Amino acid sequence: MGASGSGKTSMRSMIFSNNPASLTERLGATIDVEQNHVRFLGDLILNLWDCGGQEAFMESYLHQQRSTVFSAVGVLIYVFDIETRELGRDLEYFRECLEGLRQYSPAASVFLLVHKMDLVREGERAAVLARKREELERASGGKGVTVFGTSIYDETLYKAWSGIVHTLIPNASTLSRHLRIFADACSANEVVLFERTTFLVIATSSSSAPAPVDGGDISAAEAAAAAAPDETALNPKRYERTSELIKAFKQSCSRLREEFHSLEMELAEFTAVLDEMTKNTYVLVIVHNPVVETAAIKMNIRIARRKFEELQGDNTPS
Amino acid sequence: MSLPDHPSTKPEVSKDGSVHRTKVLLLGTRRSGKTSIQQVLFNDLPPKQTFYLEPTMRVTQHLYDAKGNSTIIPLELWDCPGNITVDTLGAPLSDFSTVVFVVDIRDNYQQPISKLVEFVAGAYDVNPGINFEVFIHKAEKLQEDDKIENFRQIQERVTERLADESPEYEQVALNFHLTSVYDHSLQEAFSRVLHKLIDSLEFIEGLLNVFCSNTSSPKAFLFDTTSKLYVATDSSPVDQATHTLCCDYLRMLSSFAPLYKSNAASEPRVHALSPTPTPPPTATSSSPASTSSARALLSQSPSDEPSSGVAKKSLFYPSAAASLSPSHPGTTLTYHLVTPHLALLALLPTTVYEMRKGLVEWNVVWLREGIREIWEVEKTRSTTTHFT
Ligand SMILES: Nc1nc2c(ncn2[C@@H]2O[C@H](COP(=O)(O)OP(=O)(O)OP(=O)(O)O)[C@@H](O)[C@H]2O)c(=O)[nH]1
Ligand SMILES: Nc1nc2c(ncn2[C@@H]2O[C@H](COP(=O)(O)OP(=O)(O)O)[C@@H](O)[C@H]2O)c(=O)[nH]1
Ligand SMILES: [Mg+2]
Fold first, then answer.
1. Binning pLDDT at 50, 70 and 90, where does residue B290 land?
2. Which residue does chain A place closest to B329, by CA atoms?
């Protein structure tokens, strides 16, 4: 949900349809609700409702269609255009949406995206976002919400959506635990598991500072990183930047009618392999120890494959 | 081996010394995109940001020199305001080896063509060997058909106007390129411009041809990693899509590398297996580097130590490979750093990459040695000439 032109359809098309940012300029306004079933992790079917934001539609969601729209909602994502001139009305609608949720889907999680952050000067983004976050939290009146600043032109998009889908993965903690075991087996400094089509991060294991993917903790970890710019600290944006980079490269490959399949690197600082883990996931393994070769990592991935297929099998609500 | 009297003995270097070959003049009417081109190519300015560039008021020289060996040829790029004339330029046209003339593809061509003709005329008397490279720019703004049609028309009019002025001008080399900052056509065009300035191009191409035939690679580029321009490629034709993929790959790798680097990590890496860099057996006989002229060139290298020196063994050369499917039998896009600033990007059949990795690595080492030797010669030459 969100006002017309705030960027909902743009984000959806980039994350779930692999479109580049440049194509979003051609999108027309969404009429009424566009329903999309997207397969995530193979068996998890997300039913995305992209609700056209023009006023007439909003009125209808809040009144005539109220029970249809707000029943059985798992996640509400409300998009605020950073440049909006009608924040008052936007907030009004948002509060009414929360009311609808309270009535029909009280357990739903709520994510607020402060979108088009690229239009804010880089130095001011953090401050602008902090102010917005406070304002939106106040407007949410006690309902716990997670706020992300986003833009389709940088990695913030992937960070926000990784945070959102993370809440939908049923056995996230089991997955993380096994990922840690796998990381140890590889002597890996970092292991990142991505969903195959969206390349959103679904689990990570890092030998350095813990960096969980779910929204709430990210800002805390980031604040800590910003407060103490530790010489040894890894780039706090590395996971979402990886999603962004690989997605862009996949698009380059498909323009040549090729499909990206896997990647291995032996760089000055680390050895890395990015390869299929299961039918629906990709894994990135980063090893700083120079003795470990890519072939060994690939072998480990091959061995771990079955275990992870099984884990995912357990995912299926039978 | 002593260093012969150089470079005056080199026939292809003009008698006024090779300092001039490094100067490139960027011309064109106002708002045609000169500064954008310079900024996107050499300062990594995102194309969208070119929108905010201020008009250029004075001639500005940008130096991309051999500092840290960052490019294979030291460049001096002169960015000019739109109203510059031969007289107000502040340097004789004989100083320049190349003029890049930028024309907005949607412009009324009258004015830019007059300006171009004016410069061709000015150059003809003092420097007939100068290269004129016409960038028909902002090409992405037009549909494919219109693009081609405008491109053809501009070429035709330029040729007509030049012939009208004087039949002699036909001797001036004019090349036309379609360019845009929004795709890699700009990088490709500028790479081609550079190629004409690299004396040793033919030897490097020869090395790449050998690499391709030894490894069954359909295409290999040698890229300058900083500017992401390619310095040379093998003799098979360049397909734009492949070139674009290589540029994107290079960009992705260079963004990826700093992400997972930890400052806490141990000392710089050493290559575990450092094969003695001698030419692979398959390469020796067909090697163009063993032709007599190349031998002569290579033997001038001042650091002509045995190539398997101990110091070099400790160097680590990063590499990467991306495998692509579903093309059959599958393609692997490889990346190998061959000097601190040059990277070999090659398309290899996945079967060769996976089953005959040793062969590929041998050929990379061999290529690296060849490049290094050519490179040493180039460097000596450019430093020598700076003092003449
Ligand atoms: N600068 C900037 N523009 C964006 C961003 N995201 C989307 N846009 C642009 O905003 C415009 C509207 O985007 P849509 O995705 O169609 O908006 P919507 O929310 O689906 O609008 P309705 O369907 O009418 O509700 C497009 O021109 C996008 O290119 C962003 O992060 N930054
Ligand atoms: N569409 C498009 N616009 C371009 C391109 N290159 C430059 N521009 C725009 O052209 C305008 C003038 O560019 P600038 O580099 O300042 O021109 P200069 O006066 O020749 O230096 C700017 O608004 C750029 O954004 C291009 O390839 N495509
Ligand atoms: Mg829409």
1. very low
2. A258
Task: Place A290 in a pLDDT band, splitting at 50, 70 and 90.
Answer: confident
Q: How much is the average pLDDT of B296-313?
A: 36
- Predicted confidence (pLDDT) per residue in B22-35, tens digit: 789 999 999 999 99
**Which residues on chain B are in Cβ contact (under 8 Å) with A266?**
318-320
Q: Do residues A181 and A43 touch, judged by C-beta distance below 8 A?
A: no
Same domain assignment for residues A47 and A75: yes
Distance of CA B195 to the CA centre of its chain: 6
Q: How far A161 CA lies from chain B's nearest CA (Å)?
A: 20
- Whether A232 shows a pLDDT value over 70: the answer reads no
Domain boundary among A154, A184, A200: A154
Given CATH 3.40.50.300, say whether it is the number of domain B20-195.
Answer: yes
Say what the ipTM of the complex is: 0.82
Q: CATH second-level architecture of B201-386?
A: 2-Layer Sandwich (3.30)
Does A160 map to a domain? no
Entry field: residues in chain A: 318
d(CA A282, CA A272): 13
Distance between CA B319 and CA B313 in Å, rounded?
16
The answer to whether residues A119 and A228 belong to one domain is no
Name every chain B residue with its beta carbon within 8 A of the beta carbon of A208: 262
ω into B237 cis (within 30 of 0): no
Check whether residue A32 and residue A105 sit in a common domain.
Answer: yes
For testing contact with chain A, the best of B49, B239, B248, B259 (most A CBs within 10 A): B259
Q: Is A140 in the pocket of ligand 1 (CB under 6 A)?
A: no
Distance CA B62, CA B24 (A): 10
pLDDT classification of A198: cutoffs 50, 70, 90: very high
> Of the residues A12, A14, A26, A27, which should be mutated to test ligand 1's pocket, given the most ligand atoms within 8 Å of the CB?
A27
